[in-house]
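Note to self: the last two entries modelled the partners one at a time, which told us nothing about the interface. This time every component goes in together.
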Amino acid sequence: MTTQLYNRLAVLRAERGLSRKDLAEAVGVNYQTIGYLERGDYQPSLELALKLAAQFELPVEMVFSLQPFEPLSRLATRHGG
Amino acid sequence: MSLYVRAATRVPALRSARTMRIATTWALVAYPFGCALRLIAPEAGGPDSPGFALDAGGLALIVSAVIAFFIVAPSGWQRIVAAEEKRLDERELQQRYRAQAFGYSVFTVLAVLFAFYMEVSIDLETQKNMLLWRPSTSDHWNAFIWGGLLYAFVLPTAYLAWTQPAPPDEE
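The predicted structure of the combined assembly is written out below.
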């Protein structure tokens, strides 16, 4: 049985204006692998997860999680009052 | 063992999941049916004889199976199955190992069934004088050898085509 692994790759990539190809080249994978990751169709190795987190200069738990991420709009509402 | 025909552009040819499913299945089904048709065709007579039609139909099926293989050969999924390991990333390697395990299992079952059939047919002939068809000419063995190669090349790709989600589009 495989546990679902959630990630924020699509949001982070869009935020930084990176294409799948750019991100794929930066971490040394095929661009389709980034697409599979974003769709949740593939779970990365620890090495790839760490490389992706390092690419976004974020701790790995901010990029990948076993729980669904809270939508940014809800976070912004909470912090903005 | 498999074969990946790299395009001149070095970029794998774009094939939809549907095309890959149809092409791999067609290659795997049309080839043995074509060979069987050619086998049961009586000595081909003139263009109007049923033997000629069966023979030509069988040949057409075999040619179509080869064409289907050449649709599959330069595709991205065939690249995963057959390109050098150093050119694949971790996801692609994982897919390759699964596909090869599937191909190996199916190929092994087919090879064992063939060996079992040969053994039974020899037994029946020697003990009960019952004749079952066995490959005997070089044409028959050629058909098996090329069929074996075709199956070894296409089975792992067929597994990917039928089990993997369609690749995400390039942005």
